[in-house]
Amino acid sequence: MNRQSFSSRYPPSPVVSPEEREETEEPTSMLDDDREIVKAYYERGGGFEVGEDGITRIEAYKENGQMAHVPWIAVYREGELYKRIPARWLVITYDVPEPETESSDAEPDDDLPF
What we know:
The protein has 2 helices and 6 strands, in the order ααββββββ. It has 114 residues and is mostly beta strands.
């Protein structure tokens, strides 16, 4: 019977430095995401949305799990902490910035054939 050590079968995951993480285009975790959360809904219905029913803020934070940090969501009503919910129970919607419109100060291209 050929036995392999655990480390040879499962090589360690690459460690990503904070500098390398900042260079990536997309956050790798909701805890690293700087966008504002505007909605947190349960998959089967019901949930929370900023601006409705007194909800003033929804933010992700981490709680200690058995072996690692676990993402949770804090929901604030009227500025006070209202609920703490495990993020795995929710569908999260982030605020999407409005696309920038082109400036109307641009001069028209007179050399276009049409």
